[in-house]
Every structure is written in C-alpha cells, then in structure tokens.
Amino acid sequence: MAKSRFPFRILFFTQDYCYRREADDLNELVKLTGDNLHLYKPQADLSEVRRLLEQLAPETRSKIVLHHHRSLAEFFLVKGVHISTHEWTASPAHPKPDEGCQEASNKISNAVSMSIKTLTNKHAIDTEYAFFSPVFQSISKKNHHPKFTIEQINAWVATQTEPIIALGGLDATNIHQLTGFSGFAFKGAIWNAADPIATAHDLIKGIFHEC
C-alpha cells in the first residue's frame, strides 16, 4: 500500500437509516478514529436526524459531516456538509464543470468533502478531501459497481494534487490493492458485520499496522 503525500485518514459512514442506540455506536466510532464521521441518511427523515444529532456527544457532533438534511448544520455545531457529484459536475445549466463547482462552493461554504465518480473529474472545490467511488463492488448498494480497473484508479490517484479517499466496497480483504490514496472510507464492511464497532477497530488496527 503506497503512501500518500497527505496524512492518512480512516473514515466511516453511518447506516442509511436511524436505529435504537445509534448515538452510542457513533460516539464509539469517533473515539476510535478521532476523525470525521459521515452521517449518510437517505432513509431517515429530518426529525430522525435531528433527534440523532441531539443524542450525540458534543465531541462526536463536532466531527459530523451531513450528507442529507444539511439545513441542520445551521442549528448544530457539526463539522460541515458533503457536496454530491451532481451538485458540481457539468449539466445543461452549467456546461463547464468549473461553473458548477463555483456555484456549489458559493452556496455551501462549510463543505468538508465532495464526490468524484470518473477519472476525468477534478477536485475543483475547496474541501478537505474528495471521495472517489466506487473503487470495488459496493457492499451496501446493489448494482453499484466500479467503472474502472484498480490499475486505472491507482494511476489516476497518483496524478491528483488534493487528498482523495477511497470509497465503495472496501474491506480488510481488498484494501491492499490500493495505492496512493489519502485514506479509506468504510460503510458496508462494518455495518454488515455482527459487531460493527469491533470490526471498525480491527480495520483500523490492521491498516495502521501495514502503514
């Protein structure tokens, strides 16, 4: 696993939905990483996400990056929000990707991360990092498979001047194939496990042992 020029990060995504005692699990995840936690809740409504944020420890809340119901960032001291691919890539309204980037950046001043889906996209918004996905066949999303080979992805990452985090299908059995990334992000690998927190701990321990 070739090293990145940037500090290496291990990040986690939440479950798609809210569940009982979730705040306890998320508090533990932040204790394990000391880093951002991506609150990804496409199956939760605004009131559920608000309730979850209220239940989190302050130190956990300060590490939260909202993917959905981002208006809540105005009311809670979260780290910031995520910008999805469709918000900044080229569209009929914005023929040039840079125009879309500029608009997204203007509208979302507290953007922490963004998504990149193709090898031609550029990290054009001022965020801490960008996710490239999917790297492997997604564990949590059916029919969400990579469009590029690992060799193509690794070669592209080596040309990037901003931190790129690998996302999509990562687990302990395949991350050794990746080179040059500034970090790994996990979702299905922990939430599909019998003990998500123990699995997260083992992933972190294994990765930093390799480094």
Outline of the structure:
It is built from 8 helices and 8 strands; from the N terminus they run E-H-E-H-H-E-E-H-H-E-E-H-E-E-H-H. With 211 residues, the chain is an alpha/beta fold. It has one domain (9-210): Aldolase class I (TIM Barrel, Alpha-Beta Barrel).
What is the typical, i.e. mean, pLDDT?
A: 88
Runs in which pLDDT lies below 50 for 5 or more consecutive residues are 90-106
Question: What is the 3D shape?
Answer: globular
Biggest β-sheet strands, sense, barrel = 8 strands, parallel, barrel
Give an overview in words:
Helix 1 links the parallel strand 1 and strand 2. This protein is of the alpha/beta class and 211 residues long. The chain is built from eight helices and eight strands. Strands 1-2-3-4-5-6-7-8 form an eight-stranded parallel β-barrel. The radius of gyration is 17 Å and the shape is globular. The longest helix has 15 residues. It has one domain: Alpha-Beta Barrel (TIM Barrel), CATH 3.20.20. It is 32% helix and 15% strand.
